[in-house]
Amino acid sequence: MSKIQIHDAQKEEASYIVQQLIQYNDTKVTNKQEPPFLHINRCIKDGDELIGGIITQLYWNVLQVDVLWVKEEHRNKGYASALLADVENTANEKYDCKLSHLDTFDFQAKALYEKLGYAVFGVLEDCPEGHKRYYMKKKLV
Asked: How far from chain centre, in Å, is Cα 127?
């Protein structure tokens, strides 16, 4: 009988785990894009100062917004909307992406995302305790 061990995954082991999942997924879903994960990342600068940015990835021609941030004193000037519109348009026009999704917390930008066409499809209560995490999606045209 073998001895099962759980330990911290090293970088190479983590990479192997991800590759194994990708190989399995490829047997279930036809991947329309190459490479299987693409990134569309943008930033906004005021001179040399970085004042905002967006980090995304595409998988199966679906846009996943991981991070959207604008420096507090530059908020409400349309920068977040411009960043999101830029990556949505690029994903749609260049990679035929038809769906975008993201998540946000109750103390972040839910109202902004709703204004930009995103709809809540799930809520995680008490994440973190006393708050809500919203999962949102938008069809891209």
From this structure: 18
Reference 68, options 126, 36, 120, 110; nearest CA is: 110
Specify the pTM: 0.88
Q: Which distant-in-sequence residues (6+ apart) come within 8 Å of 32 by Cβ?
A: 60, 61, 96
Please give the chain's pLDDT, 141 residues, in tens: 689 999 999 999 999 999 999 889 888 987 677 787 899 999 999 999 999 999 999 999 999 999 999 999 999 999 999 999 999 999 999 999 999 999 999 999 999 999 999 999 999 999 999 999 999 999 998
CATH 3.40.190.150 fits 30-139, yes or no: no
